[in-house]
Amino acid sequence: MAEPLKFCHLNGQLLPLDAARISPLDRSFLFGDGVYEVIPVYSGQLFRVADHLDRLARSAAALRLHDPHDRAQWRQLMEELVAANGGGDQYLYLQVSRGAEWGRNHTPLPQLAPTVFAFCSAWPQVRKAVFDEGLACITAADNRWGRCDIKSVALLGNVLLRQLAVDADAAETILLRDGQLTEGSSSTVHVVLDGVIVTPPNSPAILPGTSRRVIEELADQLGIARRDAPVTESQLRGAEEIWLSSATREVQPVTRLDGQPVGNGKPGPLWQRMHQAWQALKRQ
Ligand code: PDD
């Protein structure tokens, strides 16, 4: 786990993370009633911030949660926090919850002042072995709710599914629903089939990843074919390559699935190209 950095933002104030306090009656604590984003920061610059703010707005709208800031205010708030934490490479966690009311009521959608919280962590250093040898993953049945397209802080399903990977000494749990790939417990999953990058189409069953969009753009620049299409369990198990993508993983190769080698068991050539292109892009 990457160490959090010193300063956080709470409801308009910059303060040390260890001094931040919120009410135990905050609805994100009682009900998981809130949304969040995780945004990479490279050399002090927020990466793909417009995509993250678009998704935050969509998630908030899905909860009928009042978005307390406009775009310029969000950017300013985040840039101030990144600068206070020394810039460089980090990632920023941002959460908007519905706020605290006096008591506990299921009754939805009270008009409350949202709680806005953000903090930063040092960029997680990826072990060299991840790139040299790839990751081991397991599969499990996707038993999460029907609105996985909302980036909600109610992540218990994801947390319990990730625990299965930890129990199996694996890096991620890749999820299957009705015989088809959905995503990872905290990542988008891409497979390479006949030289084409195939990613399950966005739907209520998966989170629309921001890193997925980076992969789409880089694939087009590199001339690698790609398509959005359902991926069956047998296509997943027979894939030439499997990749995970997320804001904190960027793009990582999966080389073992449920103990079996993926392709020839080594990080694949298309992943190598994608990874190099990503490293070049982020330093631009
Ligand atoms: N999670 N799917 C799920 C379930 C996720 O939790 C994530 C990211 C993704 C990839 O989204 P993006 O490419 O925008 O990071 C897909 C973040 C990193 C997290 O919860 O920490």
Question: In words, what does this structure look like?
Answer:
- The protein has 284 residues and is an alpha+beta fold.
- It has two domains: 4-122, Aminotransferase class 4, branched-chain amino acid transferase, N-terminal domain (D-amino Acid Aminotransferase, Chain A, domain 1, 2-Layer Sandwich), CATH 3.30.470.10; 128-283, Alpha-Beta Barrel (D-amino Acid Aminotransferase, Chain A, domain 2), CATH 3.20.10.
- Helices cover 29% and strands 30% of the residues.
- Strands 7, 8, 9, 10, 11, 12, 13, 14 and 15 form a nine-stranded mixed sheet that branches. Strands 2-1-6-5-3-4 form a six-stranded antiparallel sheet.
- A hairpin with a 2-residue loop joins β8 and β9 (180-184).
- α6 (210-222) packs across α8 (269-282).
- The chain is globular, with a radius of gyration of 19 Å.
- The model has no long low-confidence stretch (mean pLDDT 97).
- N-(5'-phosphopyridoxyl)-D-alanine binds next to α6 and β13.
For this entry, give a set of tags.
284 residues; alpha+beta; D-amino Acid Aminotransferase, Chain A, domain 1; D-amino Acid Aminotransferase, Chain A, domain 2; nine-stranded mixed beta sheet; six-stranded antiparallel beta sheet; 15 strands; 29% helix; globular; binds N-(5'-phosphopyridoxyl)-D-alanine
